[in-house]
Amino acid sequence: MQIDEKRINALVKEIQENDQSAFKEFFFIMQPAIYNFLFRYSCNKESAEDLTQETFIRFWIHRNRLNLHSSPKAYLYKIARNLALNYLDRETKPEIFPREDDYLLLLSQKTKEDLEEVFFLDDCQNAINLLPERCRATFLLSRFGGFDYTEIAEIMDVSLQTVKNQMNKAISVLRKLLAHHVN
Q: What domains, with CATH codes, occur in the chain?
């Protein structure tokens, strides 16, 4: 879904004036993207849901700090990223798969192509999780958040060149980690 930047900016102006209906609309527009971003960080549905809710609560609480000259989307993602990092510091890595017996039964019912896709997607997620934090954030914001490098630099409070370097590093590492899938 393409996000209408003009509509987002108009909503943010209304949100700054304590308009709860504007905030509700902003939430419904932005929630799916923020949830997906946080799910990729946490690998846990419930945690991603909680972190998404906390992201929007903090956005609302700090609405008077919003700067209309910078991207409200970037500010929202910055909140989400910080919450995700705090979550990762607190939590141990979540168990991605069900019990081994359940997982084996699930796999036995899949076609060869489905299995290849399952293993590829699992390997992709594991490879992304192995990236250093800055590389992972840059990659997720670019590939799954749809942000350009300038916006990523704003979200992460780094230079544009740092974003480019981190993206190159992420792609290089992922290529190596996933090379066995390319034949």
A: 5-90 (1.10.1740.10), 112-181 (1.10.10.10)
